[in-house]
Structures are given as structure tokens and as C-alpha cells.
Amino acid sequence: LLMDDPLLHIVHIADIHFWRIIWNPLCLLNKRFLGNLNVMLRRHREFAVHRAENYARVITQTGAKFALFTGDFTSTSLDEEFAQAREFVEQIQQQGLNVAVLPGNHDVYTFESRRHRRFENYFQGIAPESGYPTNLALANRFRLLLISTAQPNHRALREHVHDEAIRCLYQLIGPLRP
């Protein structure tokens, strides 16, 4: 059976939300103010980043050979949060898992983080060099299509698939067969 193939055992990881409380008022002049307040009052209990090392160990003990991270590595797209996230993903890789990453809406939380390509810079060598959409070979028999819908917004977080991404997707998968 295909599902008995250990190369197809995939662990899916999302919404880790590494965080750091911001005290510098100059860093809070955008919507990070609300994000920081949310972390201080509520989310610091929900996202127990001090358990990341143990979590990485548990993931590697599943027997999976591939880890798919689908975003929200960070809470407010700070450099410090991305550094924590990169270290976490590297721990998973060092245990022998192949890794694929996609940014989440919190990874492009502000226009400034998108403009500086913070996600791409921190995950250089892990994220696809060609960007998104892209496809990856799994066990030399299956393709995993990765499409990013994350984008910043002034007030809220939103996700959207642009027409260009849809055109690229058709090029990646070819014509659909009935």
C-alpha cells in the first residue's frame, strides 16, 4: 500500500506563533501595537514557545520523513520571532526530516516585514528559491503544490490567491484530466 511507504509519512505543523513582547514604542507605531497587546494579555498563555525544543523532539519521534510548515511562525513578524522560528525548523531538519515552509499571515504581519522580505530572508535555503507557487516531489511519485496566500493589510489579516499565482499553478500542474 502507498500509505505504508515511510517516505509518505508527513507531519503538518501550523500556527506556532513564536513571540516576543515589544517595549520600544517606535516599533509599535503600526498594527504591531494591537498584536503586542494581544500577546501580552492573552496569547502568551496559548503559545508556549518555551516548549519548542520538546515539541521538536516529539515531531521527530513520529517516524515522519517530511515536515510541512504552513505558516504563522511568528506573532508580529519581528526579527527575534523569525530567529526563534528558524532555529526551531533547523532542529527538525537536524533530526533528519525534510522540510517545506509556507508563510502565514502573521509572517507578513506588517507592510514593512513584507517589503523587507523578512520571511524569505530568515528561511533562505529552506523556502523555495523560486518563491511561491511551487511544487515539491514527495517519494518521487507525488507532487506537493505550495501556494502562499498571505499578505499584509492595514487593519486585519487577510489571505488571497492572486491571478498570477493561479496562472503559475496551471503551469505547475498542467492540464487537468477528467
Description:
The chain is of the alpha/beta class and 178 residues long. Helix content is 34%, strand content 16%. It has six helices and seven strands. The strands form three sheets. Strands 1-2-3 form a three-stranded parallel β-sheet, covered by helices on one side. Strand 2, helix 3 and strand 3 form a beta-alpha-beta unit. Helix 2 packs parallel to helix 3. The chain is globular, with a radius of gyration of 17 Å.
Descriptive terms for the model:
6 helices, alpha/beta, 3-stranded parallel β-sheet, 34% helix, globular, 178 residues, 7 strands, single chain, two-stranded antiparallel ribbon
Structural class: alpha/beta
Extended strand count? 7
Could you tell me the radius of gyration in angstroms?
A: 17 Å
Output mean pLDDT: 76
Flag low-confidence runs. none
Strand order of the largest sheet: 1-2-3
Identify the overall geometry. globular
Sequence-ordered SSE layout with sheet pairings:
Blueprint (H helix, E strand, L loop, with lengths): L9 E4 L18 H15 L5 H9 L5 E5 L8 H16 L3 E5 L8 H5 L2 H5 L11 E5 L3 E5 L3 E2 L6 E2 L3 H11 L5
Parallel strand pairs: 1-2, 2-3
Antiparallel strand pairs: 4-5, 6-7
